[in-house]
Amino acid sequence: FALVSSRMAANDGEEEATVSLVDVLEEDEELENEASAVLGGSDSEKCSYPEGYVKRQALYACNTCTPKGGEPAGICLACSYKCHEGHDLFELYTKRNFRCDCGNDKFGEMECKLFADKEKVNSGNKYSHNFFGLYCTCDRPYPDPEDEVPDEMIQCIVCEDWFHGRHLGCVVPDCVELQEMICESCMNKTPFLWNYAAHIAGNIIYFFLLPFCIYRYVQVNGTSACKRKHQEETEGSSEEGSCSGCRLREMKSSGKSRTLQGAVFWPSAWRTKLCTCTDCKVLYADAGVSFLTDEMDTVLAYENKGKSTEQAEQAGGAEGRDPLMSALNNLNRVQQLEIIHEYNDMKTELKDYLQRFAAEGKVVTPEDIRQFFEQQQSRKRRRANAGQYYCS
């Protein structure tokens, strides 16, 4: 299966670049896993409205039906396919405790094709400028055609808005994927979190001050001493019930503090350090952040759910075997070469086709994909017909 996928010009003096078909399939599998993580097991056929305010789900906003200047609204994955196909959609990634708005009063005469019996409005939903395709404190779209500064977007776990790293008012740690972030505005709205930040967020030093080689060792080896030390300092929860063992009160009395500015990045498992005594639970509820004590609220838990769902579906196949790999085993080397060349050509063309949607911040619909493959078939037929005139 060591098949040539691309060839360098002979005068360049470079060796042929090769890739195995197994490598190609594994790369595609990784992309599929990422997509499954984003969707989190969302149903692409049924509207999520009957489920009520879903704990966390993939959401979209329709610029065609609810443009800027109107009322913000969010729609579920299935409605983005069935009810808003061909529309200008904003991908919102995920939102917590949201109920699908498709077809309610915010959409005028339009009705949901998947579930018609809906309330006029979902009063429990929370909205932001994200629903009009705007993000961060700069209130700009993403991607932003006028922004020439390369920067990543990071989501606040409280307000769920997305921020440019340079607009967070702090240095962004190197290993963002291992942490959760709370923006400065949300920290100020929940001032008791600054006490936790002074004690817990400081432990983040174990991540970004370690030499790279040690950091990789911590990632790969779950029983490493460094990781055990970090876990010991971040895991474990405070006593339930009585306020006599209030962890927050102990932190306040310690006198330890930090500068009350900038976003805060929290280390892995930091939520388990939050006090869950009776008074603190009331404090979380009053501030609207009770979800912080729920580890299943994290985006990581949501993504793992999506990956697990995908893996379970794959395992349901015939002994978990990939049908494409099974078919390739029955082909000779020439046929395998032809397949990999055709596959790579299609992959390149599909990537170029999808880049247009990414540049415009639009969601790819099933109709867009059908159109791509129809164009592929049309070009293939034209090449086949043209070849007839060169037969000897």
Task: Give the termini separation.
Answer: 34 Å
Structural class: alpha+beta
Query: What would you call the shape?
Result: globular
Largest sheet: 3 strands, antiparallel
The topology string of helices and strands comes to EEHEEHEEEEHHHHHHEHHHHH
Q: Calculate Rg over CA atoms.
A: 25 Å
Sum up the structure in keywords:
alpha+beta, 392 residues, disordered N terminus, two-stranded antiparallel sheet, 39% helix, ubiquitin protein ligase activity, disordered C terminus
General description of the model:
With 392 residues, the protein is an alpha+beta fold. Among the domains are: 49-132; 153-295, no CATH class. Helix content is 39%, strand content 11%. Strands 4-3-5 form a 3-stranded antiparallel β-sheet. It has a two-stranded antiparallel sheet with strand order 1-2. Strands 6-7 form a two-stranded antiparallel sheet. A hairpin with a 6-residue loop joins β6 and β7. It is globular, with a radius of gyration of 25 Å.
Please summarize what this structure is.
The chain has 392 residues and is of the alpha+beta class. Helix content is 39%, strand content 11%. It has helices at 21-39, 77-82, 184-189, 192-199, 205-208, 212-220, 225-234, 247-254, 278-287, 299-315, 323-328, 333-360, 366-387, and strands spanning 2-6, 17-20, 54-62, 75-76, 89-98, 153-155, 162-164, 180-182, 264-266.
